[in-house]
């Protein structure tokens, strides 16, 4: 591209992967309910981005969208809320390693949806990657079955989170063609925050007041893995190939597992390590063989 980035994109990508890897550990440090953690994560992220959104004319840009596009934008926010609600809940039921590996099978879901609904045929390489990833996932599930039913339920919730993440990526693809990053993510984060607050209130989840330590953790989760993680790696897509960015995200399960061992003294089982490695290899093969769109 002719535009020169103000910051080295590859370095920014590395920073974003380290940032998103902290999410699991920060969430496990909180004593609040999953919906409260998710709601404050998205609320603080929205408030951080809101001044820049207004300053760059985000409201005027949204007014140019038709009703269908605005409805899609709101729907994406709800899907993102479901992703965080299910995945953060999973962290309280299964290991960090299992949770972050399962939540990253979204490329497989995206490939399947693209094949059956978008007319993009899955090639043999992608099918091979899916088969390898499922074999690894089966090993993880087998190992988690020995630690109790709650772990398997946590694995299932992480998979639900992965499906929601895949929908988030697919549904947002068209809107990102018309909207810049901040104009897109700010209203999506806002809708997601509202959906999570409503969900928390309806389910009876305590939404506050909390000790200052909890609010500090919520802010850290919003700033580090959300702003410096999710938002920064989305920025790198302007300068780096989507395949490079997608594959680099496989560093999050590795980083999260290491951080969980260091800060939470949570060592993954041998089956989780083996199954996780096999799953990540399968996802990598799937990504390498799925055309970028």
Describe the protein in words:
It is a single chain. With 293 residues, this protein is mainly alpha-helical. The protein has a domain of 198 residues. The chain is 78% helix and 0% strand. The protein starts with 8 loop residues before the first helix and ends with a helix. The model has no long low-confidence stretch (mean pLDDT 87).
Helix amount? over 70%
Tell me the major beta sheet: none
Measured between the Cα atoms of the first and last residue, the distance is 17 Å
Q: How many DSSP E strands?
A: 0
Tell me the layout of helices and strands.
Elements: H1 9-21, H2 23-29, H3 34-55, H4 58-63, H5 67-91, H6 96-102, H7 106-117, H8 124-145, H9 149-175, H10 181-203, H11 212-236, H12 242-248, H13 251-264, H14 270-289
Produce a short descriptive summary.
The protein has helices spanning 9-21, 23-29, 34-55, 58-63, 67-91, 96-102, 106-117, 124-145, 149-175, 181-203, 212-236, 242-248, 251-264, 270-289. With 293 residues, it is mostly helical.
Q: What tags apply to this protein structure?
A:
mainly alpha; 293 residues; single chain; 14 helices
């Amino acid at each position: 591209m002719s535009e020169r980035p103000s910051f080295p994109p590859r370095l920014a990508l590395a920073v974003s992967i380290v940032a998103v890897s902290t999410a699991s550990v920060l969430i496990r440090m909180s004593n609040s309910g999953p919906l409260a953690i998710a709601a404050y994560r998205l609320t603080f992220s929205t408030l951080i981005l809101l001044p820049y959104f207004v300053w760059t004319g985000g409201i005027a840009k949204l007014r140019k969208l038709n009703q269908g596009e605005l409805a899609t934008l709101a729907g994406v926010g709800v899907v993102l809320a479901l992703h965080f609600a299910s995945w953060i809940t999973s962290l309280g039921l299964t290991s960090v390693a299992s949770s972050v590996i399962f939540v990253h099978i979204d490329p497989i879901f995206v490939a399947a949806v693209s094949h059956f609904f978008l007319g993009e045929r899955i090639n043999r390489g992608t099918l091979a990657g899916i088969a390898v990833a499922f074999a690894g996932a089966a090993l993880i599930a087998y190992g988690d079955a020995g630690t109790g039913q709650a772990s398997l339920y946590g694995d299932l919730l992480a998979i639900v989170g992965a499906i929601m993440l895949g929908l988030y990526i697919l549904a947002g693809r068209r809107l990102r063609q018309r909207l810049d990053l901040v104009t897109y993510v700010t209203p999506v984060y806002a809708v997601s925050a509202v959906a999570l607050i409503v969900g928390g209130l309806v389910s009876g989840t305590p939404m506050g007041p909390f000790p200052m330590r909890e609010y500090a953790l919520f802010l850290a989760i919003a700033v580090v893995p959300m702003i410096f993680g999710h938002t920064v790696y989305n920025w790198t897509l302007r300068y780096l190939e989507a395949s490079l960015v997608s594959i680099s995200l496989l560093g999050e399960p590795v980083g999260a597992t290491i951080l969980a061992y260091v800060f939470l003294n949570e060592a993954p089982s041998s089956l989780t390590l083996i199954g996780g490695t096999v799953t990540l290899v399968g996802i990598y093969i799937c990504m390498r063989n799925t055309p970028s769109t």
